Amino acid sequence: MYYNYHATAKRLIAEGRLVGWYFAARHKAISPALVLVFDDDKHRVMPVREYRWAEYMSVLPAELFRGDKKTLPEK
Fold first, then answer.
1. What is the spatial distance between Cα 44 and Cα 9, in angstroms, rounded to a whole number?
2. Which of 16, 22, 18, 8 is nearest to 72 (CA)?
3. pLDDT at 47 over 80
4. pLDDT 10s digits, 16-35
5. What's the CA dihedral at 2, 27, 37, 4 to 10 degrees?
6. Lower CB count within 10 Å: N or C terminus of the chain?
7. What is the number of domains present in the chain?
8. Which residues contact 22 (CB under 8 A, 6 or more apart)?
9. Containing domain of residue 51, as a range?
10. What pTM, to 2 d.p., does this model score?
11. In this structure, what are the phi and psi dihedrals at residue 71, rounded to the nearest 5 degrees?
């Protein structure tokens, strides 16, 4: 079944379902990755490829960042 991956991620963020996010050198086949962590059974973890990061940086709450603040890219 097809679903729009990024629309789903952004909808979950808008609904307040995001519980954390971090950058990983590698997450499964995605390297590097912005990893979004949700309280959703179907979409618990959603990695994002680097070329899509800019779309997310303005909507990700800094207080949910689970990493070293020095690794945050410029907005």
1. 10
2. 22
3. yes
4. 999 999 999 999 999 999 99
5. -20
6. N
7. 1
8. 34, 35, 37, 65, 66, 67
9. 5-71
10. 0.86
11. -90, -5
